[in-house]
Amino acid sequence: MSIQSMTWALEQRVVTDPTCRHVLLCLANYADKNGRGAFPSASSLSDDTGLSERTIRYKLDALEAAGVIRRGNQAIAAAYIDRYDRRPVVYDMVENRGAPAAPREDEDAERGANEDATGCSSQQNGVQMKTERGAPAAPNPSSIRQLSVNKPKKRAGKPAGEKSAKFDPSLAKPANVSAETWADWCQHRKEIRKPLTATSCKQQAEDLANHPNPDAVIKLSIGKGWTGLFPDSALGSVAGTNGGASAVLQVPAHHQEMYPDDYI
């Protein structure tokens, strides 16, 4: 990219046609700081200007006829593009009109390399054959265009340390319930797709706190396929154990809470 050449292309008043000025400005973008060695392909200039490749070639001929550009050292393109028919024309900006052309090295090579080439090809290449003292190498035209990079967005969310731990109902066993029975109850609730929550475990522990046989309450609910615990339902079993065979099992009133959704 040559800021000097692009500034000249904007400030010059020799070319007044808007389309020609646009092509000249884009062509100057590919020259070095001295306005030399610009050889973008027709497709590159077409992408830069939005014009057709045919129009680009016409405007380049018009700019050359106006004397604001001239053919430069064609050996630059030949050094990097082997195929003759794929080499774009190398142009120099004529920034100081009327001044004698600066001497160039390898004049013989220039005359013999692509002297009869016309127009531009679709190949996109750009190179600076030699750099002056301290001058950086000319960039490839394809690298001049700045491509936007989509940076990944940070996902909003709580830090890992702040995420709440998954509740484990097996750790919320009531004090008066055996570990085996409570494990069966946790598994039962899981199988019917009604896993125990911290709130339900707390409530069930309170319901079973003063019960004489909490394991019987849980086993009865498992056997019946109930989702809840009903302490009164097992009192008859306890009475039968303590008072003899004449005791009658007390059956609780049926309501929807006893059954999982699959059974309703």
Structure description:
Helices cover 38% and strands 2% of the residues. The chain has 11 helices and 2 strands, in the order H-H-H-H-E-H-E-H-H-H-H-H-H. The chain has helices at 3-11, 18-28, 42-49, 53-66, 75-78, 107-112, 141-144, 179-191, 198-207, 214-224, 235-243; strands at 69-71, 91-93. Strands 1-2 form a two-stranded antiparallel ribbon.
Radius of gyration, CA atoms, in whole angstroms: 44 Å
Helix share bin: 25-40%
Task: List low-confidence stretches.
Answer: 105-118, 120-132, 240-250
Reading side by side through the largest sheet, how are the strands ordered? 1-2
**What distance separates the N and C termini?**
77 Å
Q: Report the principal-axis shape.
A: rod-shaped
* Average pLDDT taken over every residue: 75
The number of helical segments is: 11
Strand proportion:
under 5%
Q: Provide the domain count.
A: 2
Topology:
Blueprint lengths: L2 H9 L6 H11 L13 H8 L3 H14 L2 E3 L3 H4 L12 E3 L13 H6 L28 H4 L34 H13 L6 H10 L6 H11 L10 H9 L21
Antiparallel strand pairs: 1-2
Helix pairs in contact: 1-2, 2-4, 3-4, 8-10
Which characteristics define this entry?
WH_DNA-bd_sf, WH-like_DNA-bd_sf, 2 domains, two-stranded antiparallel ribbon, mainly alpha, 38% helix, Helix-turn-helix domain-containing protein
How would you concisely characterize the structure shown here?
Residues 97-173 are annotated as: Disordered. The protein has 11 helices and 2 strands; from the N terminus they run ααααβαβαααααα.
